[in-house]
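Reviewers asked in the last cycle whether our approach scales beyond single polypeptides. To address this, we selected a multi-component target totalling 991 residues and predicted its structure end to end. The input consisted of the following lines:
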Amino acid sequence: MAPPIDLLQGTVDVLVLRTLAWSPMHGYGISRWIRERSRGVLALEGAALYQALHRLERKKWVAPSWGVSENNRKAKFYELTAEGRRQLRSESSTWKTYAEAVSLVLEPA
Amino acid sequence: MSHSARRFFRFPWRSRARIRADLDAELQHHLDMRAEELAAGGMSPDDARREALREFGNLDYTRQYCESLDAAGERDVRRADWLDELRRDVSFAVRGMARHPGFVAVALLTLALGIGANTAVFSVVRGILLRPLPYEEPSRLAAVWPTSTISNAELVYLQQHARAFESVAAFSPGWGTAMLGAGEPRQVDVARTSANFFRTLGVRPELGRGFTDDEASSGAWNVVVLSHALWVERFGADVNVVGKHVQFDATPTTIIGVMPADFEAFQPGVEAWQPLQIDPASQFYKGATAIGFGRLRRGITFAAATADLAALTPEVRRLYEYADDYGRGFTVSSLQDSVVGSLRRSLYVLLGAVGFIVLIAGANVGNLLLVRGAGRRREIVLRSALGATRGRVVRQLLVESVVLAAAGGVLGLAAGAWGVRALRAILPATLPRLAGVSIDLGVLAVCAAITLGVGLVFGLAPALIASRAEPQDLLRSGSGGAAGGRAGATTRNGLIIAETALALVLMVGAGLMLQTLWRLQHVDPGFSTRGVLTFRLSPSSGQLRIAGDASRYYDELFQRVSALPGVERIGTSQHLPLTGFNWSANLEIEGRPLPAGATAPRVVWRTVGGDYLGAMGIPVRRGRAFTPDDRTGAPPVIIINEVMAQRFWPNDDPIGKRVRLGFATKSDWATIVGVVGGVHYRGLDQPAGDEVYRPLAQQSQAAARVAVQIAGDGDPMRAMGAIRQAIRSIDGSVPISDMYPLERIVSRSVARPRILMVLLLVFAGVGVVLGAVGIYGVVSYAVGQRTRELGIRAALGAGESSLVKLVVGEGARLALAGAALGMIGALVAARALRTLVFGVTTTDPLTYLILAGLIVGVALVATYIPARRAARADPVAALRSD
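The resulting structure, written as structure tokens, was:
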């Protein structure tokens, strides 16, 4: 399978940041949350999710730490950093503008 | 222990394997969780696992992608940690040094001297030797036959036929052209150049233009390009100067351009350039007077150009009837080499000398660090006990020595800046490219490299030794234990031996140059400078032309100046000895025709007026000097020197024989009327050569050097005012310049060996002082360590003198070893001086022995002072000192 294209990558990044704005989570938690929150419409591929997480970690927008997950297993948790929060704010507004513009174009006249 | 301590202080660094394991655990967690969830929904565990894997997407790529990201992040962390540690080490070093101001002051002073001397000398070497010539594509500029000069005829021929060259140009140095029409009459140093001179170098005037090709031919010569300095001085930097007229040697001349301030080529200090007067009809057409150079075609090597020109020489020889040996040794070489090549050896000798100083300074600092390392063993043991590895401790200590060196480097740079100014002031102004010597980026880089090198090289051994401290060392002896035990002592002794040896090498170099200069100054030049004043005259202005020829003017001058009180003798010559001008001509002896194919002997000739021989104190050996009767119309006469008499008439009397000098046209036969003493005109280090004198009245020569002998041992400068006045009274438009005692010409001729000697003496002095300081410091420390031992010896009845002997004896052993090593080193190093010494060999045993004795003496004094102090100490106090 080809790596995610840029648009998709950007979308995943902002969705992950948004998800972590609630509380620190591990990767699986994030994917479950997005699936539930989008009422099953957005099924985020694990591959895209973990690539995004490590990318965001390298950019220092999220900070990792090892903890214990709900079923008592060792898991890597991610937390939004101050810099990540700033990024989320600016990217969400960009995304809203973009999404509105796209839906304006797609709407029947 | 060390691992957990590190973990305690910071997040541990992750290895590549660790990164991979973490990543696998993370991804496995996701797959497991999903599979469990799917299984909870009713799938079989196997199906659930398969489905989770399928949903995940490209697992391999993801693993690869994440791993490379994580590794890059890890590298950032390590770098940040490393920088952080370095910052801590530096600040620790600075704080540590602040607590030991004495140690730091000595180390910094030492480093500043060493690095400063290096910076200054390297600036000069770089400015003169290494910096490319400031012309367009300097690597393509070539000297044509650098060991000889070329004639206008050759220039024109080469311009037309030398295919290896894009262009061939020539430069003829010049002095003392009379300039009128711009303020006071003034002599100007005007060089003559081929029309393509500026274009060949690839430089443009800052104002106006350079020469056009037709300005090289007859009748179009009266144009001039001014130097920036002359333009400012005489024309007030007038931007409208182009097109104005001045008189150069009574010829109206048009100013066509001004060169930029930093332009210098071939003759430092030249003030204006005029076109070479290329006239095939002139008797000077075939006379070699100019420096030839050219711009090679792209891709042509010096060797190829040499071959090209060598192939042309037979034709040149035939066309212009040059002697049979013409063209022998014809070469083309780098222009830069020919401009500065003669300085290379001296400059590299100086660079070597300052290199030795840096080594001595470094050895001193190394010693200081060893001692300081010993005093810090408690701290080092504590740090290792807290988990610092040996590498970590060595690094900390190296950071300290580099920080110390860096501070020394900054001071050294300041000292170097001062040194560059000092060197520019004391080096002869005639050195090519001296004006461009400065501390530039290249010098800064070298200064920084030396600084870092000193910090690392001389910090490494002390750091390794100090870091070897073991906790039991601390228990075994008190804080006063020897620095690093035996390794420390060996290193210390080694450094002392090296310092002594290096200082001796410097001293031998200085000693050899000192003798060279002493011997040069005791060479009898063949003339006497006592009470002789000299100056230049260019009586070629308008009034003179009305009055007649130059000899009439000089007759008048001799009369008026001789009448002045105190003036004993006066005479002129077109050039004085030791000024670098020795015009020569082919000699033909009546009745001795040259065998076919033989080359005519060449002799140097001078046209002399008045009582030149008398004023210069050149003795008449046989026959007579010139008299006022030897004038135009009288039978031509000539005087030869004894060197020539011996060469051509070894067995009979030359007086009465007839000779003639051959230029392009041959002169009349002249009768030898006298034989005079030989003169070392080429240089005090050169033997007196063949020389003939011709009377001014029979061979008119306008511009000349005048020598005036003042009565008794009077200061020749005292008569200056009166002489100037007398000359002005004849013709106020004749410029007088460069009036100074003849002695100055002699001393200037040995300026290079003198400067080399002075600098080597200074460097040797610095080297010896640094060496002595080093030895003193080390011995003081060593006896401090042995206070207890010496105290016991004293308590057991050893007298003060026997204790001193004990310590000094050890110092003497080291000093003798150093001196022996230094003599061997000097034998090798002094070979570099072989072509620079005079009257002494570079292996002169007496020099070596005396200086070796001297350095051992200095070392003994440096040992004696602390030894005596220790021996005088109260034994009881010494025993308690632990």
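The interface with chain A takes residues 22, 25-27, 29-34, 36-37, 55-59, 61-62, 65-66, 69-70, 72-73 of chain B (CB under 8 Å). We regard this as preliminary and will revisit it once experimental data from Aim 1 are available.
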